[in-house]
Amino acid sequence: MTALAPNVVPFASPAAADGPEFVETPVAYDALVLASFGGPEGQDDVIPFLRNVTRGRGIPDERLEEVAHHYRHFGGVSPINAQNRALKAALETELAGRGIDLPVYWGNRNWAPYLDDAFTAAADDGHSTLLVLATSAYSSYSSDRQYREDIALAITDASLEDRVSADKVRLFFDHPGFVQPFQEGLDAAVTEFLEQGVAASNIHVLFSTHSIPTADAVRSGPRDVDWGEGGAYVAQHRAVAAHIIEQLATNVTGGSTVPWQLVFQSRSGPPTQPWLEPDINDVIAELPAVGAKAVVIVPLGFVSDHMEVMWDLDTEAMDAASEAGLLAVRTQTPGVHPAFVTGLVDLVIERIEGTPASERPHLTDLGPWYDVSRAGDCENVRLGFKPAAAGLVP
């Protein structure tokens, strides 16, 4: 690929090509591409899928099999593809209901249907101005920049450089449609525990998200902002969690704030590599010592019931809570909740209409997030900068 000058956005529509923070010019997108992680759909798919996930790291199959048992426990089938089919259908219904003629294509990073196939199908159907919606809400390498790298790779692998442009919907961590399902789930769980006679001060809320290497965390978000320890990734989660807790006090507990903290799960790196902590299971084990009687686990980092939710939370974390003698519930993910689907289409319409940033809904002081990622955002220190769409280079 030809080297690009600074402050150029590869593969972008003309409205986004110069790299504004917010694209406030209408763009006539003619297709929407739903981009996701992907997952195996049978026992024979599990190891090849995990090879795709860990490509370039030289991890032998023997070690991959240690992770594979999570999938094998569920028949080798990840829930994520079925969830994406359901989300695609829900988006199509919502778009049609609003009179928006925008076909939806779906492609994955690590398993069929792959993202380059989705781009090829869109181009072959005559679509050239594409908007990508990634099923990830927060800033980090794996949840943001890697998707932008995937877009660039899909376009170049399919030789579509002269046939399509591709922009990406902004990160939606604090969009009301994403947050509402978590709020409803927490409000309902705490209400139930209160009705069972558990005092608010004895109900602990754990907002759980995927742990990532600390080196990636500190590089998440624009480089010219001091995000504090954990970078924008942690700052975004904390801001959303604080908002949800504030609303809980208004909605349920009569102004009382329940104890809460942000915790991490699903770390997969070597012991020598620092990852974000504390681990959710370690925290659960310590809760009885601080007077907890019940724990509410809010899967704040996940858009649907991924394998990390079904295994790491519904199995391991719930087992940890049982061992600690705690009442426990895991609240819902957004999935295809009507508010979430409506919110995603609202985000698409933002880009179609070029909605001014001042009119874009957000629930924290960190939003609304950028349409075009800033230079160097979400660098992976181990891999360096690869070509990426929907952001200023590098």
Summarize this structure as a short list of keywords or feature phrases:
4-stranded parallel beta sheet, Rossmann fold, alpha/beta, 394 residues, 2 domains, disordered N terminus
Short description:
By secondary structure, the chain is of the alpha/beta class.
Can you describe what's shown?
The structure is a single chain. With 394 residues, this protein is α/β, with parallel strands linked by helices. It has 2 domains: 31-173 and 337-359, Rossmann fold, CATH 3.40.50; 176-330, Rossmann fold (3-Layer(aba) Sandwich). Helices cover 38% and strands 11% of the residues. The protein has 11 helices and 8 strands. The strands form 2 sheets. Strands 2-1-3-4 form a 4-stranded parallel β-sheet, sandwiched between helices. α9 packs parallel to α10 (307-323). The longest helix has 21 residues, at 231-251. It is globular, with a radius of gyration of 21 Å. The protein starts with 30 loop residues before the first strand and ends in a 41-residue tail after the last helix.
Q: Layout of helices and strands, plus pairs?
A:
Blueprint: E1 31-36, H1 46-53, H2 61-72, H3 80-97, E2 104-108, H4 115-124, E3 129-134, H5 141-157, E4 165-168, H6 176-195, E5 203-210, H7 214-217, H8 231-251, E6 260-265, H9 280-286, E7 294-298, H10 307-323, E8 327-330, H11 338-353
Parallel strand pairs: 1-2, 1-3, 3-4, 5-6, 5-7, 7-8
Helix pairs in contact: 1-2, 3-11, 4-5, 6-8, 6-11, 9-10
